[in-house]
Write a structure and sequence with these properties.
The protein has 260 residues and is mostly helical. It has one domain. The chain is built from nine helices and four strands.
Length: 260
């Protein structure tokens, strides 16, 4: 059934765009509803959502294109075809966070309070988006002999890079973990914690998940850094590990400051 859906080229591209749009819509609605409960300026929060949507897509696409320049030398205009897939999460996350913080400070929104409200929405959005990645055949997994391995069709990115190979459905692994993180963040948000706790908890869990998933995901030659215990460590895993350490340090300091 899955292979049949993937072989419908126009459908898979539309499905990816639909899932990406659904992710932003669900996340935006969730953030706006949470902001209302905190009596925050709805107009300012709505503008923030627009900024997040634009900068996250722009940053994700820019980082992907920069790290895949060879793929676009023959057809530079194809770099604008976001609906065909090709987004790098960290690029979008970094640009969206920086631009959002600048905007929130400019309009005097409580930065860490809003970040805490946005964290579950980001996790839910990622869970939905990764399903779109699965339908599109991008962000695919490494080879596997496991019974749930997926063979992508030749016209997909995965099928072109690893034709006929059975691969980990790494996109669905990521989607499932993101949904679990989403549920945990919702429960965490109901308690009383220092501002920023929910956001940094998201960063910690998501970074760990991304670093671990790197072992089941295909690593392009240019992203491979070094071997560790028979496994190749890529740049995304290293970034994830560093962000996890940073997040753990920040959370530890928050807890220490609260006790003090």
């Amino acid at each position: 059934m899955y292979r049949t859906l993937l072989e419908l080229g126009p459908f898979k591209i539309q499905a990816y765009g639909l899932m990406l749009s659904a992710a932003f819509l669900l996340g935006g609605i969730m953030l706006l509803r949470s902001a209302r409960k905190k009596a925050l300026d709805e107009g300012a929060v709505l503008n923030l959502i627009y900024i997040i949507v634009f900068t996250s897509v722009l940053g994700s696409r820019l980082m992907y294109v920069i790290t895949h320049l060879e793929d676009y030398r023959g057809d530079p205009a194809s770099a604008l075809k976001v609906w065909e897939g090709g987004l790098t999460l960290y690029g979008g996350l970094i640009l969206a966070i920086v631009s959002s913080v600048v905007y929130m400070r400019a309009v005097r929104l409580p930065v860490w309070t809003v970040c805490d409200l946005a964290a579950p929405a980001i996790a839910l959005g990622k869970a939905v988006t990764r399903v779109g990645c699965f339908m599109n055949g991008c962000c695919f997994g490494a080879r596997t002999d496991l019974p749930w391995g997926v063979v992508f069709p030749p016209d997909s990115h995965a099928g072109a890079v690893l034709p006929g190979a059975r691969l980990h459905p790494a996109q669905l692994y990521s989607s499932g973990l993101s949904f679990v993180i989403f549920v945990i963040l919702l429960r965490l948000g109901k308690g009383k914690h220092p501002p920023g706790t929910v956001f940094w908890s998201f960063m910690l869990m998501d970074s760990i998940a991304r670093a671990l998933l790197g072992f089941a995901r295909y690593s392009e030659p240019g992203a491979r850094l070094f071997a560790l215990g028979g496994h190749v460590i890529n740049s995304n895993q290293l970034i994830g590990a560093l962000l996890a350490v940073l997040s753990a340090v920040v959370l530890a300091r928050m807890r220490s400051a609260r006790r003090g």
